[in-house]
Asl1-like glycosyl hydrolase catalytic domain-containing protein
Amino acid sequence: MGFNEPDNAACANVQPGPAAVAWPGIVANARATMPGIKLASPAVMNLGSSWWLQQFFGAICPGGLARCSVAPDYLAVHIYTLDSGDFIGQLQEWNRQFPTLPIIVNEFACTTFGGAIPSQAQVNQFMNDVTTFMDDTPWVVKYAWFGAAANSFDLHGVAEANRLVDQSGTITAL
């Protein structure tokens, strides 16, 4: 997987140009170490940062992704929202912008990072709605709920109702 939230100062915090310069070396090293490995793109914070990926892909594959030797095999995305319709709309837009790349949603949860706090019932319904959509959508190939943290600090602002384990490490009903 590529850079984690390169558009976020608290994470990778790298501009598309320098990331694109580093990418061929990352790809070469990964393929030399693990022949046949499949690579995922850097995962930006949200759909509002698609500009980052547009610039990155333009720099690593100026002729387009289809014939590019260093193109990723998957588009990795993060989606955080309270609304399952918004979540699905964002996924559809990612697919519209990058139709040749199957999608891995490697972080998602029902949260706003400081806005409204969802109830457990809202989180449960959200999870059901969006996982059903992803399971039924062939261009979404993998997904991972963000919330497998026993320590609240490790949730990084994601609403507590999204926990997959409680503070003792016991699996929650979610």
